[in-house]
């Protein structure tokens, strides 16, 4: 069969003979023609095959033969057309052999003129070539030019291609010669997840995954172009992201399946500050820790921690004023049923280890259900050869992952079965139509090792449930600046006090004085710790007084305040302290 224009082929095509396969013979360019098809580029190169599956009438153009005016007719036009007696110059009737894909022309020459509907005119090749008259349009002769929308399947096209019949290419019908040809429809592995009714299926990889390597497994290297795989079904197992340190520098990352049969034992958690205790207590019913690092407040206001102290977190006391700070209320066990309640600031740096009194063995399902993730567990495995986690003494279970996986095996090595997450490892493939079983020959591995690069990429993709740490209070003036200001004020006060007459008391004997404390930790005569910042240990020697004392302005009836720190003192204590200092000065 000789090549014809694509428009003529579609106009003469019998829709009952679909689908038909045509071959592109020539286009606008020798190497191929690129056309804009429904917003997408469609390249029709010479020699390409196209399987036509549907033809729909899009519009009908009517041309006035006398003046050349062209306009469109509605698809449901009800007027009747009458052909003229003469065929256009060069028009010939075609005879079609039996089994031809084209319509058999029912138009016959009659002595009496006949009228035809617009559908009858379009179905007849002879009527389309004749000049027609229609009383509903006018007295002038017209010709009809239909345009069709053609739906076709092409090689390596994901979607059905929609092409206008006016496409300027030459085609030839090769349906009989192409019955053995299978038109490849590329699919992404992520699209197969929504095609559960098509599984199991045999597929061939068109393009290898372009993303970062995900798994450090033997089967990952087989996923190359041309590799045939069997896609069995969706995997119903969920996963847990875990990590484990091997040696001092290397860290391994794993993806554990819910089908993992190993057991774990809970390990105590470690905390480096009290804010971590507050975050863990927010999601735990009970939290008991042991102090692993001596800790004391720099100003002696807060209680001291010693190595071995046992603390039980009770609640978090929120501050009512902006200038105050949140506190962690704990119960310290001093032994012999001696328990005291203490308040600890949330920003205090210390060292704690969780007091775990749990020897229960957990499966992976029980660990996710009962333990707070992330958590450290000890792997209880006796067979290191079959269990990849057997060599890991301590494992960190980080988070649960609920993604859909596909169970896949290699066609050449059916025993090599594995699960692939299409969201992480997408690739292009097509169904070959070969046989595949719903049940894989072997089970997928319950533990897969991840690459380090993909692990950190995965952390960015996963949602974080960790709450923000508490906001630390505003920092006060440094101790050095405070001591410097107080020392200068003390020297000035000592010079004024030395001028007082002997045996007489000054009129400012009731003026309160504030002295700097000598160190971060102050103790009284009994050796007990002074927990109040406004309690100081004083030395009444004259030389000490002249170097360090600093008088403050008198506040009648109320406690005085320092503008920098707002430390308040009781009037009685200030009066007694000042009197002792002045008597010591007068005595000398």
Automatic annotation (TrEMBL):
Domain annotation CABIT: ranges: 18-82, 106-177, 209-408
Top-rank taxon: Eukaryota
GO terms under biological process: T cell receptor signaling pathway
InterPro entries attached to this UniProt entry: CABIT_dom, THEMIS
Any one Gene Ontology cellular component term annotated for this protein: nucleus
Compositional bias ranges of the Low complexity kind: 497-509
Region annotation Disordered: where it falls in the sequence: 486-528
Family: Belongs to the themis family.
The protein, known as: CABIT domain-containing protein
Species this chain originates from: Podarcis lilfordi
């Amino acid at each position: 069969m000789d090549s014809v224009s694509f428009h003529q082929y579609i106009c003469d095509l019998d829709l009952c003979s679909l689908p038909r396969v045509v071959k592109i013979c020539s286009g606008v360019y020798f190497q191929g023609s690129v056309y804009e098809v429904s917003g997408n580029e469609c390249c029709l190169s010479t020699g390409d095959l196209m399987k036509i599956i549907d033809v729909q009438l899009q519009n009908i153009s009517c041309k006035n033969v006398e003046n050349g005016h062209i306009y469109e007719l509605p698809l449901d036009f009800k007027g009747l057309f009458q052909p003229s007696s003469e065929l256009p110059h060069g028009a010939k009737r075609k005879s079609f052999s039996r089994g031809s894909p084209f319509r058999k022309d029912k138009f016959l020459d009659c002595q009496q003129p006949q009228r035809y509907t617009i559908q009858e005119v379009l179905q007849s090749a002879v009527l389309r070539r004749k000049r027609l008259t229609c009383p509903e349009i006018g007295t002038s002769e017209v010709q009809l030019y239909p345009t069709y929308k053609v739906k076709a399947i092409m090689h390596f096209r994901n979607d059905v291609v929609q092409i206008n019949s006016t496409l300027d290419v030459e085609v030839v019908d090769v349906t009989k010669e192409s019955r053995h040809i299978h038109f490849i429809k590329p699919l992404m592995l992520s699209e197969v997840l929504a095609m559960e009714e098509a599984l199991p299926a045999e597929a061939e990889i068109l393009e290898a995954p372009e993303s970062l390597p995900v798994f450090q497994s033997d089967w990952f290297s087989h996923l190359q172009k041309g590799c045939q795989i069997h896609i069995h079904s969706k995997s119903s197992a969920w996963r847990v992201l875990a990590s484990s340190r091997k040696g001092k520098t290397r860290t391994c990352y794993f993806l554990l399946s819910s089908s993992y049969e190993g057991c774990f034992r809970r390990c105590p958690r470690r905390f480096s500050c009290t804010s971590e205790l507050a975050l863990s207590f927010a999601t735990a019913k009970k939290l008991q820790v042991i102090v692993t690092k001596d800790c004391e407040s720099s100003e002696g206001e807060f209680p001291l921690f010693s190595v071995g102290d046992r603390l039980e977190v009770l609640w978090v006391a929120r501050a009512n004023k902006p200038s105050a700070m949140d506190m962690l209320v704990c119960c310290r066990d001093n032994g012999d049923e001696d328990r005291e309640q203490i308040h600890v600031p949330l920003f205090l740096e210390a060292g704690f280890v969780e007091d775990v009194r749990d020897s229960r063995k957990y499966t992976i399902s029980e660990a996710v259900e009962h333990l707070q993730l992330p958590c450290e567990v000890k792997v209880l495995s006796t067979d290191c050869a079959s269990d990849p986690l057997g060599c890991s003494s301590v494992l960190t279970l980080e988070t649960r992952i609920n993604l859909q996986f596909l169970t896949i095996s290699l066609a050449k090595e059916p025993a090599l079965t594995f699960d692939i997450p299409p969201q992480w490892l997408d690739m292009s493939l097509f169904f070959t139509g070969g046989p595949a079983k719903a049940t894989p020959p072997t089970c997928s591995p319950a533990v897969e090792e991840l690459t380090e690069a993909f692990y950190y990429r995965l952390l960015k993709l996963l949602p974080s449930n960790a709450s923000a740490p508490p906001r630390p209070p505003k920092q006060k003036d440094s101790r050095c600046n405070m001591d410097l200001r107080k020392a200068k004020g003390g020297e000035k006060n000592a010079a004024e006090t030395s001028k007082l007459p002997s045996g007489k008391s000054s009129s400012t004997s009731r003026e309160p004085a504030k002295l700097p404390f000598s160190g971060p930790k102050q103790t009284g005569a009994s050796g007990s710790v002074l927990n109040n910042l406004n309690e100081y240990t004083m030395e009444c020697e004259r030389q000490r007084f002249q170097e360090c004392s600093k008088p403050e302005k008198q506040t009648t009836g109320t406690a005085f305040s320092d503008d920098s720190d707002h430390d308040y003192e009781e009037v009685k204590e200030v009066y007694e302290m000042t009197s002792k200092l002045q008597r010591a000065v007068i005595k000398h």
